[in-house]
Design brief:
alpha+beta, 6-stranded mixed β-sheet, 4-stranded antiparallel β-sheet, elongated
């Protein structure tokens, strides 16, 4: 009888690796050692100073290849003195595992790694199992999962379906599966006017007034009413700055940042055109010129309800007794990159304490998450 891989112990070991983006911290070295010992072929796919790990059990290019994706990098701890536990101690107290990454998402990685190791050891499948693990999800995400997918394309490696182990459940383990995500983009506007004395506004061209008009237009324009699987798109003005310390000077320029989370009624290109049209209209009305820079974090995407979501939902219900909601809520994740490679859904732990001081998770959840991932593998290859 093969040994059972303990996901809680593996989670604690990973938490003890100080892998704050972009530092590897020993987390991927640890996983490579454990996976290699179980017969996985492991390859480091480092790029741009970011450490990534690709592990495959089974033949390359098999038509049935189930993949897991996740990250071992974590956000900074913040004020370490505010923690009641060592952020990198992996302490188990009050039936909870404490530390940075306890929810987001070293436990998710440990759970799917443990499930995969035990599955291929006990019941070698007719197919392949892939683990694609990055160290750059919490950072710019340019050299993480993207680098892994680029390398896979070059090497002829592929997944037939993929599950991202991000924390997805709002309240109870099993209550939500993510089948898509909204797109995210940020627009940086600069209004360029003519500086002048506030007592003689007719001799200046006030960029603050022009920017206020633009912000009013953008903030009060409903982008849509939602779609079949998505809530309504949202636009938030996040900065409005002049850097002007004087109360009697009309400044020469003004800057505003706008973030849009958009559903599948839009693309970043269509929204960019709309933003540009609004800025041009205000420029025409006021004589103030606008510059606009756009950064797109990801497009919206949807994996329609079907075989993959049914597979995951069935495993969740079998282990937890909970029927999960299929959702597209929340921010972005690396699923936005995987969706161009194969069908992808996300399922993981309850994420209430992620990125917080005293990040922690119930030990029982980690064990159940491993059981869910193991059930997914069993049912997929059945």
């Amino acid at each position: 009888m093969s040994a059972i891989t303990d996901p809680v112990a593996l989670s604690a070991d990973l938490i003890r690796c100080p892998s704050v983006t972009p530092d590897e911290g020993g987390a991927l070295v640890l996983l490579e050692h454990r996976l290699s010992a179980a017969g996985f072929t492991c390859t480091r796919v480092d790029r741009g100073g970011i450490a990534n790990l690709y592990a495959r059990w089974g033949d390359k290019g098999h038509s049935r290849t189930f993949g897991f994706n996740g990250h071992t990098d974590v956000v900074p701890v913040g004020d370490a003195d505010a923690w009641s536990a060592d952020p990198f101690g992996g302490e188990i107290r009050d039936e909870q595992l404490w530390g940075r990454g306890a929810t987001d998402m070293k436990t998710g990685v440990a759970a799917f790694a443990a499930a995969a190791i035990d599955f291929v050891t006990a019941t070698p499948p007719d197919g392949a199992v892939v683990l694609a693990i990055t160290g750059d999800e919490e950072g710019d995400a340019l050299d993480g999962t993207v680098a892994l997918l680029d390398w896979m394309a070059q090497q002829g490696e592929a997944m037939s379906a993929c599950l991202v182990g991000e924390p997805t459940c709002p309240e109870t383990l099993g209550d939500m599966i993510k089948i898509g995500r909204r797109g995210s983009m940020t627009a940086y506007f600069t209004a360029r006017g003519v500086q002048g004395h506030s007592a003689y506004p007719h001799r200046a061209r006030n960029p603050v007034h022009a920017m206020a008009r633009l912000v009013d237009l953008l903030a009060n324009h409903p982008l849509d009413q939602g779609t079949d699987h998505f809530d309504a798109s949202t636009l938030a003005v996040t900065t409005f700055d002049t850097g002007n310390p004087a109360n009697n000077v009309i400044p020469a320029d003004c800057r505003t940042t706008v973030n849009i989370r958009f559903n599948d009624a839009h693309t970043s290109d269509s929204l960019t055109r709309w933003l540009d049209d609004q800025a041009k209209q205000v420029a025409q009305d006021t004589g103030v010129a606008f510059d606009m820079d756009i950064k797109v974090s990801g497009e919206s995407f949807l994996t329609p309800p079907g075989p993959l979501s049914d597979l995951v939902a069935g495993a969740v219900q079998a282990v937890t007794g909970v029927t999960p909601e299929l959702s597209t809520s929340g921010g972005t994740s690396d699923a936005r990159f995987v969706k161009d490679h194969c069908p992808v859904v996300e399922f993981g732990l309850v994420g209430k304490t992620m990125h917080q001081v005293d990040e922690r998770i119930e030990v029982a959840q980690i064990v159940k998450l491993k059981d869910i991932y193991a059930r997914i593998l069993t049912d997929y290859f059945a």
